[in-house]
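Sequence, please.
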């Protein structure tokens, strides 16, 4: 069960960047992301994937490499991956450390990591794609999609809509006691995503609790960061398109772009592309020793269960930087992506869009993206509002090693500006 960050990810200021001054003084804080980097005429070569076409020849980076390794040592981070997206292309990637502290393999830019809550950006994209293509109405009552009485117990006449779930205003709360039972180790989750929905959201379900599963506010009224709301959103996409959510996303997004090292599950046919021995294992430093956390999986996986390489996630970010199309592969129309990035319910939270959220990195403008936290995992994916510069960063290590993560982030962003 991916935990809700102590401070919600979109609101966490990256104070080191501001202190370092590499991004300049904070100016007007607009929230109007409209990424449009690169040329819309760029096309992949015949037989070439969009991800491959978007990948430049990466420059040597000895100074950056030294800074990252020094921060890893200070922060006790056993593995790190990072990429820079510049003008809509993957301009640089680097990988450091090993997949496990007890040996493992050297980490590469194709090594899948657990991305925790950055997964919500992929889930939101899948939902908006389904809406754009007429397979799902983001404003339809999810109860109608499911044919189940999914209602807020205190506000049964107010529909719960997928759009609200993506913006964390769906009235859904995280019942940690129930969610702990949705986790398995080193194998696919025993409970399916579809089976989870009536269990958690329908009165009489095994994990249904009017007090613990729902907020006091009616849907659409109040922001509450909600992992289970995101899980319901992903499940609703699957129900609407008539295909399991993981299979739908892997075919429609990962395969479409050429994200060949990304999947929601571990070794479950037919999507068995991520054997355990290829993954970076989450690790934590506790009591003066490493703790290996294993490879947890989650029945509520749309909220935080994505495993992907830094290169694949940079490919996803490059697609967004270019306005929804990457070298001839269209995922979203540009106007749709820009609308997705607009604050969805500004009266509830002015920084929260659909999946995407605005955050202050100490620049003249807010950036847009998400970060993630899990035991032994820290991750980030952010883009400037015009799409000209972005970065992805993931580590085996917790946000309790925040200073080391921010040191690496500072170095990567500064390097990207010089490319």
């Amino acid at each position: 069960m991916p935990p809700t960050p102590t401070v919600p990810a979109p609101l966490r200021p990256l104070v080191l960047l501001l202190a370092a001054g590499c991004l300049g003084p904070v100016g007007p804080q607009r929230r109007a992301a409209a990424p449009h980097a690169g040329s819309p005429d760029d096309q992949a070569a015949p037989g070439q994937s969009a991800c491959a076409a978007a990948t430049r020849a990466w420059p040597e980076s000895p100074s950056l490499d030294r800074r990252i390794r020094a921060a890893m040592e200070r922060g006790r981070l056993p593995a790190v991956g990072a990429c820079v997206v510049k003008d809509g292309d993957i301009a640089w990637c680097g990988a450091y450390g090993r997949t496990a502290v007890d040996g493992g393999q050297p980490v590469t830019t194709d090594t899948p990591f657990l991305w925790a809550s950055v997964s919500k950006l992929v889930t939101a994209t899948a939902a908006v794609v389904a809406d754009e293509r007429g397979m799902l109405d983001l404003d339809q009552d999810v109860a109608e999609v499911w044919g189940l009485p999914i209602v807020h117990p205190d506000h049964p006449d107010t529909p719960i809509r997928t759009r609200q779930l993506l913006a964390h205003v769906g009235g859904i709360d995280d019942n940690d006691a129930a969610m702990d039972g949705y986790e398995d180790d080193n194998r696919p989750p025993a409970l399916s995503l579809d089976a989870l929905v009536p269990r958690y959201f329908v009165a009489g379900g095994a994990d249904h609790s009017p007090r613990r599963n729902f907020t006091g506010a009616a849907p659409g009224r109040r922001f509450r960061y909600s992992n289970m709301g995101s899980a319901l959103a992903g499940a609703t996409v699957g129900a609407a398109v008539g295909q399991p959510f993981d299979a739908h996303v892997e075919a429609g997004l990962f395969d479409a772009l050429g994200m060949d090292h990304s999947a929601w599950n571990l070794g479950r046919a037919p999507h068995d592309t991520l054997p355990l021995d290829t993954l970076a294992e989450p690790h934590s430093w506790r009591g003066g020793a490493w703790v290996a956390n294993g490879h947890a999986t989650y029945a509520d996986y749309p909220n935080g269960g994505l495993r992907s390489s830094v290169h694949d996630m940079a490919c996803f970010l490059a697609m967004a930087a270019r306005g929804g199309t990457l070298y001839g592969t269209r995922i979203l129309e540009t106007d749709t992506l820009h609308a997705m990035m607009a604050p969805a319910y500004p009266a509830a939270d002015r920084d929260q869009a659909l999946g995407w959220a605005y955050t202050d990195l100490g620049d003249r403008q807010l950036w847009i993206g998400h970060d993630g936290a899990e035991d032994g995992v820290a991750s980030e994916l952010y883009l400037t509002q015009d799409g000209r510069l972005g970065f992805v960063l993931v580590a085996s290590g917790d946000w309790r090693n925040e200073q080391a993560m921010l040191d690496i982030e500072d170095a990567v962003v500064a390097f990207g500006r010089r490319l």
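Residues 402-418 form the longest helix (17 residues).
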